[in-house]
Write a structure and sequence with these properties.
Layout: E1 2-6, H1 10-27, E2 31-35, H2 39-48, E3 55-57, H3 72-79, E4 84-88, H4 96-104, E5 108-112, H5 119-132, E6 136-139, H6 146-156, E7 163-173, H7 175-180, H8 190-206, E8 210-218, H9 221-224, E9 232-239, E10 244-253, E11 261-269, E12 273-277, E13 283-287, E14 291-295, E15 301-304, E16 312-315, H10 317-336, H11 341-355, H12 362-380, E17 386-387
Bound molecules: nicotinamide-adenine-dinucleotide.
Protein name: Putative oxidoreductase YcjS
Keywords: Oxidoreductase
Domain Gfo/Idh/MocA-like oxidoreductase N-terminal: 1-138
Amino acid sequence: MRILIIGGGMITREVLIPAVQAFSRRHGRDHLLIASRRGATLQRISDEFPGLEFQAYPDPACSDPEASRPEAYREALADLEPPAAVIVATPDHLHTGPVLEAIEAGFDCVVQKPLCLSLEDSRRIAAAAEDKAAYVYTDYHKRHDYSIRALRHRYLAGELGEALCASAYIEERREMPLKNFARWAQASNSFDYIGCHYVDVFYYVTGLRPKRVTAYGQKKMLASLGHDIYDAVQALVEWENGAVLYVQTSWVLPDGNPNLTNQGFQMTGTQGEYRADHADRGTNFCTQPSGYDRFNPYFCKPYRDWNHPERIVWEGYGIESVIQPLEDILSLHQSAAGLSPERRLAKRREILAGLIKTRPLPEQAMVATAVLEAAHRSLAAGSVPVPVEF
Ligand SMILES: NC(=O)c1ccc[n+]([C@@H]2O[C@H](COP(=O)([O-])OP(=O)(O)OC[C@H]3O[C@@H](n4cnc5c(N)ncnc54)[C@H](O)[C@@H]3O)[C@@H](O)[C@H]2O)c1
């Protein structure tokens, strides 16, 4: 299979490339293409992954590595041949264009969360995917975390009764808006960027749909440095059965916070409660070069290969959440191979009708997007409650 990654930033280096390598180890060698704005970004990937073979768009050897080429991914799409998957890993507000173009070109997609930031865009993506029988999966990796899977399993088994209320916190170090996302932090906020995870978790676990959102935000520390960016955003999400979810987000934690992201979830039902720290998994390191490190061994971490101990493999729910859609896409191609165009389309529709029940395809992923959009409207109107309209 050919895999095109659009966007060569943090998630591509820290999760997507290791996940594609893990997928290739399971299913045979894949042909990788990576498109980003700048050749320098792709040169950095070459430097950090010696031996990784990929076609670069733009090619840093043939162009000014610092020149911005936001349309270079179109050349990659034009060079891509099926069977192929397109992974969209551009900033939050720049998912829609590449996703729609990939679908239009006949490809299946894996999109980094959130699917997009407006309900209108998610409707366009859903309609395009429906029209072409395309698979479009949003990488809500918490669905693969055993802690969340256990909650869902026991909730669906009725052990917690009916959801009444829940609270989530997810907060990152200040390096995110100040350094890592300095180019696009003003187009997003901490609720869009990380809060969406726990909105999707609540929906994934309960199957309830959101009804109303009230959002609050504070601009203080980042504003004092001259950035018109929220330090923190909180949202109250009311659900169709009257349950309430409170999500607390920020991205101004001190540099010395021992992990990039503090995060956890609590949920109360009529018959039981769930409570989990999703950052502190009870495994910590303290080393001379790196200091204290609160270590989550379950997300996406390097380990020694069982059979080739000289080799490093990356494992965890962050990896599985990318491998699952790549395997779905491979299986879609295999199931429809050799069929006429009409029968191929019918076969894909039949398979997709089954997958929509269990995967964050657009109909599911748009739930969190609808909440994000309502939160934006609530913030803009001075924290008034805003209905979520599907
Ligand atoms: N699943 C996760 O664990 C996880 C973690 C972090 C980020 N994310 C999501 O992944 C996405 C990317 O985040 P990131 O951390 O890699 O951000 P980043 O800023 O480090 O990288 C984004 C990259 O996209 C590139 N880009 C922008 N416009 C482009 C275009 N037109 N064509 C090609 N490339 C373009 C940028 O140049 C940059 O290299 C975001 O949506 C984010 O929310 C997911």
